[in-house]
Structure prediction request, 282 residues.
Amino acid sequence: MLVREAERLARRSLTEAGRDSPALSARLLLAHVLGTDHTGILLKADEELSASQSAAFFALVERRRRGEPVAYLLGRREFYGLDFQVNAATLIPRPESEHLVDCVLSHEDRARPLFFADLGCGSGNLGIALAHHCPLWRGFLLDTSSAALAVARENSRQHGLAERLGCIRANLARLPFANASLSFLVANPPYIAFEERHEVMAEVLDFEPHTALFAEDHGYAMLAKAIEEASKHLLPQGGIYLEHGATQAARVRQLLAENFTDIGSLRDLAGHERVSFGRLKA
Prediction:
């Protein structure tokens, strides 16, 4: 079978299955199997797939037909211009979370050595993106999942940041830091309420780790814990930066108000307040 024929069949199959972006998904999976990119697919369009390539490609197409996210099938996802390994132990980094990185970079001093923590790091995308853009910053990537930390550790190594980023398995409700020791804290914690499960996309619900998605107290439990821990471990005037749901900003600002000042929220491209921040009162 020719490369272009295989791509056409995959595109049609994914379209019939009702999957998002069937043409893009087919091309990404085919490029992955052939070890090439978009341009390479065009150049190879009239070449024959080997039997092993065809089998590998259509096996991935079938998994995508069943709803498995493309990022898991490829084993990687781009975030903030960097390539990250991902697997079923980690959430898939999303463009919305790039606003969290933007917020930190616009509020913290890149020219000073700062010490930070990334809570619930998953693949490590937030902390790694920050450290990549700020060579004087050092920090720790924390998660309760040893499998997620293994991915974060490998991503840190691949981006040449292993000496500046430590990986710690920790209960996020009791951080292993001295009081008043962090310059800032960043987190994309679980914030979806269990009662809102029916609103979550099927492929997210079926394939991404629930411990990184859902939280008690109508989705606020881990956000509140992050704020509580930040109030203990941040230096005076240390910053906290939290991603949360599109309707949660007002309540998060209320939670911050007890111990933080300079509180605000940042809107995403859709106009939703998705990141909130503040500075610990002196």
About this structure: The chain has eleven helices and eleven strands.
